[in-house]
């Protein structure tokens, strides 16, 4: 292997290891929007029936903090609302809130690459930790 090829391989591995990662930017506005239109998965599948939800609650007790609020028109998934959400949009159980809430919004690369975004008006957004022009330096 020539020195030039070796350098290219090293550069490729370096960029692969230290390339941009998706990150969450901004901060919570405490509006409660994210607490009103939640969808859940059971494994790879969206929860679309009450029966699926009941089974999921048996597997994951944290799901007892949520109740069905409707159906998403685009994919038929059930939507959920947090039982701790107060009328002013604030959390009534903030200090003991679920991990679902503590980790929101989740960084899911496939979701972001497919133009997934946070809810309109949310203080959070997705971005990258390193812009493309930084790689050109």
How would you sum up this structure, described in words?
The protein is α+β, with helices and mostly antiparallel strands. It has one domain (21-135). Helix content is 28%, strand content 18%. The chain is built from five helices and six strands. It has helices spanning 3-18, 50-59, 99-102, 109-113, 132-135; strands spanning 22-26, 41-42, 45-46, 66-71, 78-82, 124-128. The strands form three sheets. Strands 1-6 form a two-stranded antiparallel sheet. Strands 2-3 form a two-stranded antiparallel sheet. It has a two-stranded antiparallel ribbon with strand order 4-5. A hairpin with a 2-residue loop joins strand 2 (41-42) and strand 3. The radius of gyration is 20 Å and the shape is elongated. It starts with a helix and ends with a helix. The mean pLDDT is 82.
CA-based shape: elongated
Structural class determined from secondary elements? alpha+beta
| Domain module tally | 1
As a percent range, the share of helical residues equals 25-40%
- Main sheet attributes: strand count, strand direction, barrel closure: 2 strands, antiparallel
Order of helices and strands: HEEEHEEHHEH
Number of helices: 5
Q: Rg, please?
A: 20 Å
Question: Which whole number gives the mean pLDDT?
Answer: 82
Note poorly predicted spans: none
Strand order of the largest sheet: 1-6
Q: How many individual β-strands?
A: 6
What is the strand content? Answer: 15-25%
Give the end-to-end Cα distance, rounded to a whole number of Å: 27 Å
